[in-house]
Design brief:
Layout lengths: L14 E6 L10 H17 L3 E7 L3 E7 L3 H9 L1
Antiparallel strand pairs: 1-3, 2-3
Length: 80
């Protein structure tokens, strides 16, 4: 089950987000895994009006600077 430690007050402003892989497994070392992440971000740009400013994908986590009309909903969709 997911957890949320943070409360987002300005949902439409850009936010710096870190997503980590459970147990720090190096899942993003495969090109196919990275392609799935990028396709998901492209899909959310169309579906949820995601504005993507920057991203870095490392072997077991990623950093994203983004904004959306409803950031909590967009992040929930991304993590599913």
């Amino acid at each position: 089950m997911g957890r949320s430690r943070y409360k987002i007050y300005e949902t439409t402003h850009p936010h710096f987000v870190t997503c980590t892989v459970l147990h720090q497994l190096p899942l993003f070392t495969r090109q196919e895994s990275v392609a799935i992440i990028i396709e998901c971000l492209k899909f959310l740009q169309e579906k949820d009006n995601l504005k993507l400013y920057a991203y870095v994908i490392l072997e077991n986590h990623l950093y994203i600077v983004l904004s959306s009309d409803d950031l909590p909903k967009t992040m929930q969709s991304f993590k599913q």
